[in-house]
Amino acid sequence: MQTTLANFREIESQNAFSLQNSKLLKVELNQVTIQAKLGSMVAYQGDVRFEHAGSGGMGRMLKKALSGEGTQLMKVMGSGEVFLADQAQDIHLIYLENDFITVNGPNLLAFDTGIDWDIKRVEGASSMMGGGLYNMALRGTGWVAILSDGPPVLLNVASAPTFADAQAAITWSQGVTTALKTDFKMKNLIGKSSGETVQMAFSGQGWVLVQPSEGQISAATGNGGGNNSPLGNLLGG
Fold first, then answer.
1. 17: confidence class by pLDDT, cuts 50, 70, 90
2. In angstroms, rounded to a whole number, what is the distance separating the alpha carbons of residues 88 and 21?
3. CA torsion angle for 208, 209, 213, 219 (degrees, to 10)?
4. pTM of the entire predicted model
5. How many whole angstroms separate alpha carbon 81 and alpha carbon 31?
6. For the residues of 157-215, what is the DSSP string, one character each?
């Protein structure tokens, strides 16, 4: 038999998290236990077990209820390997070393269970938007896999005043300060509102990763896939 399938052979790696291609992640579970977006498993080999991942305490459960958001997570463990993907979006890996990042909920694919997470409100959001704007704060040491709807751009916020759409800004580093900015002048574009009158403002020392869209309109359902929200989904209980 003659095929071109050899180009798609599994890629071996010494790392717990490794990309098989730009849209498919492999996790070696003999090295790590993870939490992953429910419905993101596309294949696995070996002894792999899946459990529902709770909210991780009453405090986070209350924050989830107050925010009105809820991306469901599953806990994945065992001695095999699991392959993860979500709507063929691009996947990017970040290894935290006693570090801190903020991630837009729908863009979080998986992370090491040794990493602590919490729900964080963007400063100034509650006074300008009903209920506020919420994201995930991840802190600790280990791998984090994030999603982008297309190839993103990495912006240095220290080099110039930086602004982005709230759904396009998918993750930013420690040392970055956020706020919301209203630009009333944009309401006058072509005689009508542009729909871009509120942006996130970034300052400080660090970077922000911006995807080339405002996120996918709908996520997979039926198999437990996440539910995208205009304000960004959060980890569920």
1. very high
2. 11
3. -110
4. 0.81
5. 10
6. TTSS-EEE-TTTEEEEETTEEEEEEE-GGGGGGGGS--S--EEEEEEESSEEEE-SSS-
